[in-house]
Amino acid sequence: MTQTPVDPATSPVSPALSAAEEALATSTDAASLAHSVTRSAQIEADLDVNPDRYRMLTGVRPTGNMHLGHYFGTMHAWKPIQDRGVDTWILIADYQVITDRDGVGPIRERVLSLVADTLAVGVDPDRSTIFTHSAVPAANQLMLPFLSLVTEAELHRNPTVKAELEATNGRAMSGLLLTYPVHQAADILFCQANLVPVGKDQLPHLEQARLIAQRFDKRYGRAVKKHPVFRRPEALLSEAPLLLGLDGEKMSKSRGNTIALRMSADETAKVLRKAKTDSDRRITYDSAARPEVANLLRLASLCGAGAPEELAERIGDGGAGTLKRITTEAVNEFFAPIRARRAEFAADEGFLLGVLHAGNERANAVANETLEAVRTAMGMDY
Length: 382
Ligand code: TRP
Known about the structure:
By secondary structure, this protein is mainly α. Helix content is 53%, strand content 6%. It has two domains: 34-240 and 349-377, Rossmann fold; 265-346, Tyrosyl-Transfer RNA Synthetase, CATH 1.10.240.
């Protein structure tokens, strides 16, 4: 296919995006997934050799207490990445809270709680940067030029936006929900992160961020001949283990079916006692036929109690009571040191605020620099 080159700087009616660019936007077909998997493995290997080439950004929405699903899904990886020497940035995505709800909730408490969780899992505030959206104006300002680089149709096709829309149960979609992939691109691009740990379902977001970077540099890049304004972020693919909530449904903060990181050993025992199982006394590991039992076996296993099959065999006719007791012990033992550290941090609000302020300061310095480069590229450096 040949395309007539259009000079966006001089063409009076250049379309917002070429059809080819648009078609690329949400391509998560098998080929691109295979490419992401290969690339992620290469990066994983390179992290040990050249950790200083990477800045990793991950983000969490402060919508409730972090739970074991978050821990085994992403948080467990933060310290190891940081300790390999990768510049680690943790975003507490407070503006993303209001994409799909009417208010911010007890936001201050949740943000500080998240700072405590982050420190408890071993993120070192002297080496890593913990910050919030709302404290970094220059990062948010990127939303304006970025919005001009995407089409409304493209946003409607975004799989995550679609899924979130379905989850709102027919409530109207806010403009922020529709455009949050653009805001997320601003998160990644303002800080020049080139590495974002994601599950497969998040790949379209990263593709969107890359496209925005590419389109920006194509449209405005000629003003800065030396180098592009933005880095191209890549995915570090992670395989999050399947953990269901204690009621056998999808684990979620809002369903109240989780074990929170901040729970005490007693609270953990209490919620696990109420966990749904089934009436078959003999414990077996069968994810399809016995999802709730299998889920507890997997959870105990993640916490070091052995392989789920082996554990099931060990419990045998001990029934759900024994399964729950073993799972409780495993969870409580595994999380005891993290919870102890967490309690210490959580008791010192001044320290938590200090960590956040230092992180916000670092984020602002980088964001201001990026915005300056954006202004220059766009000829808006008056
Ligand atoms: N969307 C992510 C979540 O719901 C949070 C997030 C916001 C994020 N900005 C990000 C993740 C930037 C990675 C990079 O958990």
